[in-house]
């Protein structure tokens, strides 16, 4: 199990709760999506604002549905939706 799914570090890990990162946030080194140390992801600083802009536009400009709601997301070791997570986008009114 990855640290971000460990219930002792992240209660209700499956529940979307952005507030869990507010204030002091999670314990140090408990959330390490980019690895750490001398081999930490080189794309770290690039990927985070890129994802922020992408999610901002998806949330603000579109409504979306999962086309395969029960799609499996195996970990090997990173989570990867087995069918590529197809979604249906509709423009927001
Ligand atoms: C959400 C996006 C990304 C995630 C979650 C991610 C995650 C990771 C992780 C976990 C590692 C292994 C770190 C370790 O061994 O401790 C890694 C390595 C690496 N990542 Fe990323 N990455 C992302 C995006 C990117 C992007 C956009 C680039 C390039 C533009 C990139 C370039 C690299 C490189 C070159 C390494 C190898 C670093 C090394 O071995 O010295 N990554 N990444």
Automatic annotation (TrEMBL):
GO term, biological process aspect, one: sterol metabolic process
Q: Which UniProt keywords apply?
A: Heme, Iron, Membrane, Metal-binding, Monooxygenase, Oxidoreductase, Transmembrane, Transmembrane helix
**Localization annotation:** Membrane
Say which domain of life the source belongs to.
Eukaryota
Under the heading PROSITE patterns, the entry gives: CYTOCHROME_P450
- List, alphabetically, the InterPro entries matched: Cyt_P450, Cyt_P450_CS
Q: Which PANTHER family match?
A: BETA-AMYRIN 28-OXIDASE-LIKE (PTHR24286:SF209), CYTOCHROME P450 26 (PTHR24286)
Task: Return the protein name.
Answer: Cytochrome P450
Per the UniProt record, the source organism is: Populus tomentosa (Chinese white poplar)
